[in-house]
Each structure stands twice: as C-alpha cells, then as structure tokens.
Amino acid sequence: MSKIKNKALISVANKEGIVEFAKALKRMGFEIIATGGTQKLLSDNSIEAIKISDYTGGSESERVKTLSQRIAKEILETGDIGLVVCNLYPFFAQKDKPLEEMIELIDIGGVTLIRAAAKNYKKVCVVHDPNQYEYVIGALQKDQADENLRLELAKNAFDYIAWYDAIIAGYFTPDFASRRYFAAAAERFIPLRYGENPHQKAAFYLNRIYQDGFKIHGGKEISYNNILDADVAFGTAIEFTEEIACAIIKHQTPCGVALGENQPEAFERAYMADSLSAFGGIVGLNRKLEPDTAELIIKHFFEVIIAPAYDEKALEILHKKKNLRIVELDPELIEPMVYRPVFGGILAQERDLADLKDWEVVTKRPPDDYETAALKFAWKVVKWAKSNSVVFAIKGRTVGIGAGQTSRVGAVEIALRQSVDRSAGIVMASDAFFPFRDGIDTAAKGGVTAVIQPGGSKRDQEVIDACNEQDMAMVFTHLRHFRH
C-alpha cells in the first residue's frame, strides 16, 4: 500500500509548529484525533479535533490515555490511523527535580504510539520532530508519502525513542560500572564540516541536558579536531583547582602548561614554555577569561580559546580575531566516564580522576621544597600527555614535554631537546615506570635533579641506583597515568 489513510493521531509535548501543521492536514481532508493538551490547543485555534477519550470511549487516567486497544489496532494492524504525530515528555530537559517528579516525566503512551507506528511503516507515517513537519506536508501534498519515505521516518523514530530511553537509563544509573548495557544519550548538537580529515563525515553529539553548558561565542565553524584538542586543553587547565592555570594544546597533548600569580602571567608562562609549538594551538584556562589576558592572546595565532566563563570586555577583545573560536564550557560537562568505539563494540572506563595523595621517597636524597612543588605540578601535567610521556618542569611551568613515544627514553630525549634553555631547577615526571636506567641518565644530562614516576619495573633498583649516582631525588607514586 503506497498511500496512507486520512486519519491522524496527534499527541505532542513540544507543541512548536503543531497548529500550522494541523491546519495543513485539515486542508487535505485529514480527520484529527488528539490528546488533552494538544486537542485544547487545536480547538482554541479553531481546528476541529476529536478528543482521544471520546474516540476510544474510555475514561482512562492521564497515565494511560493513549494505551487503548482501539488505538493500538488502528495503528499496528489496520492502519486506519495513517499518520501518528507524537513527541515525548521532556524528561531530558529537567534538572535537580526529586525522583517523584521525574517519574511523572517518563513517557509511556507516547513511546508506544511512536514504536507502533514505526513498526507498521508500510501503512502508517510517523512524525516526531517539528523540523519534519514542512517536509512531511510537502510529501503529502504531492502524494509522495510513499513506503520509502515512511521507512525513513520510522528509522528516525526508532533512533528518537532509543535516545529517550538512554537518557532515562542514565538518570537512574549514572554509574556506568554498575550498568550491564551501554547507551549514550546524545543527539546531534553541532554539525561539523568533516572529521579528522576532509573525506570523513563528522558531527558533535551532546546530551540535551548539557547543551546549555557548551557555548560558542564566535569564530569560524568549529571542527572535529578543535573539539578533541579543546577537551584536553580544558581538562589540563582545570586539573589545577587552587591555582590560576593555563594550558596550550596541540594534537591532543600539552605543549605548554603554567601557573601564575594572575591569569596574564599564567598565559605568558604557558606560551613561553614552547612558543614554537603553540602556533595554531588551543588555549585552555581554568578561570573566567580577563581582558588583560585577552589582549595577550590576540597577539598570537590560536585556533580555539576555551574557558569556564568570559568577561564581556574580554569577549570584545577576542572578537577582533574573526576566525578565533571562543568556547565557554561548564566544568560539569567533564563526564566521569570515557569511551571509544572499537571492533564494533565500545570500550568504557572511569575517567582518570586519581590524585596524588602520597609518595614514597626511594633515593638517598629526598626532594627539597622547591623540587616537591615542581614535581607535584609536573605530575598533574603528565596525566594529560599522550603515553609514553615525560614532562620536564620547573616550579609552576613546563619546559619540555615528550609525548606519544614508543620508548620512554625517546620521550626523555624529546623533552630534553625542548628544555635546552634551562640548566637548573628541572624536575621530570613520567606517566609510567622506567624500564631501564637510560631515561634517568639522559635526563641528568639536561639538568634534571628530581624525578616522579609510578615505579613497578623489574629494574626499579637499577633506576634508583642511577639517581643516587647523580644525586637525584626520586619518588614513586605507585599510580600510573597512561593516556592512549
């Protein structure tokens, strides 16, 4: 059957555009059945619509008004109801409500209507999104609401209710470790020109609950790679909760991270750490962006600035760089879970939120006060560098970062080359243990005086001996920070 029957059931929580849509249906001769609030809105706008309780002859309560055998039969079997227009209670739009109120926002009848109509797409057309109204009306007017179109709408409908159920499941069981099934309750939020490369399609999906927490204040269209880098830039910066911090990122790894007595100082020190790599980078800040910092930023070429908030004057200054993407992010959007697709499945894990609580001094000499502060700083930074990674740092600033290497000594050599302008006061952090002493010997040539690393190698004693021979302090954290 190619044509649908001219009877429509309308039940919408989001009533945007429904009056105009229903008027168009009436002009095409559709008989309309509607649920309470929808029927009243249509009636108030002089659109004739049968109240669903009158149509079914039932006296159902609010919870079960659409769970009627007649309705189900006319959608699932006969197709007498040829058009179902339905969207769901806004469970996704609620925040900080008690469980009793959230329970009432779980849509049952609407999901049943949508699922039934989508299942019987050969006879029924299902519409769930106000953005579909114009398209569907056009198809009906041209007698083109055929089976292919209805199948496409059915696919979209199943996608919609799967998303809706994923939101509910996430609300009831936010701890992914206790869930048996995985579902990400995200919807297309920002279309992207392409993915990592121009031949790859891409989009940014985000849970509707969190969409108000991600704002773009200007600049060119944001890209897939921009968002990946911005995630690391912001994560690195907010790693520091007590201090004013700035992180500059390239290709998902830090190239300069620094603290400052004030924000402009933090930015300048981060830029100084590796000004060559900072070109075209992403700047992350852990405080509201100030005008003085904005003035410094626009002197250089950056792709993205990301911060938890912006001073209005700072935004005016940044807007002088027309292509600069300006992102504001609520720190609450940093999810406690990270995941990635692999082999047709999904790897999921807790985010690495472990903080350094204590360490074990394993060398003859403990770190002095200066080295202690520098080591704690470097340990926070190395967590955000791609493994294998090491970070050379002075107190409150990186001076060299070797990341993403296949050998640990190779990472040390890169960090050493970047820190040639420093000869004293340098410490080194390593995200995992040193398998051989060569990394220590290489670091010593660059003036490193103290090391922080997890420990756990079969050759730990060899590495400890290397430090003692060169009067270096070393501490074990017994905590690893791999980031692949």
TrEMBL record:
Q: Which GO terms describe its cellular component?
A: cytosol
**MGS-like domain location, by residue?**
1-128
What reaction does this enzyme carry out catalytically? IMP + H2O = 5-formamido-1-(5-phospho-D-ribosyl)imidazole-4-carboxamide; (6R)-10-formyltetrahydrofolate + 5-amino-1-(5-phospho-beta-D-ribosyl)imidazole-4-carboxamide = 5-formamido-1-(5-phospho-D-ribosyl)imidazole-4-carboxamide + (6S)-5,6,7,8-tetrahydrofolate
**Its pathway?**
Purine metabolism; IMP biosynthesis via de novo pathway; 5-formamido-1-(5-phospho-D-ribosyl)imidazole-4-carboxamide from 5-amino-1-(5-phospho-D-ribosyl)imidazole-4-carboxamide (10-formyl THF route): step 1/1; Purine metabolism; IMP biosynthesis via de novo pathway; IMP from 5-formamido-1-(5-phospho-D-ribosyl)imidazole-4-carboxamide: step 1/1
Q: Which UniProt keywords apply?
A: Hydrolase, Multifunctional enzyme, Purine biosynthesis, Transferase
Q: Which GO terms describe its molecular function?
A: IMP cyclohydrolase activity; phosphoribosylaminoimidazolecarboxamide formyltransferase activity
Its transmembrane ranges are: none
- UniProt xrefs under InterPro entries: AICAR_Tfase_dup_dom_sf, Cytidine_deaminase-like, MGS-like_dom, MGS-like_dom_sf, PurH-like
* SUPFAM superfamilies cross-referenced by the UniProt entry: Cytidine deaminase-like, Methylglyoxal synthase-like
Annotated GO biological process: 'de novo' IMP biosynthetic process
The answer to whether the entry has keyword Protein transport is no
User: What is recorded about the domains?
Assistant: The IMP cyclohydrolase activity resides in the N-terminal region.
Please report which protein family the annotation says this sequence is part of: Belongs to the PurH family.
Q: What is this protein called?
A: Bifunctional purine biosynthesis protein PurH
Organism of origin is: candidate division WOR_3 bacterium SM23_42
Gene name in the database record: purH
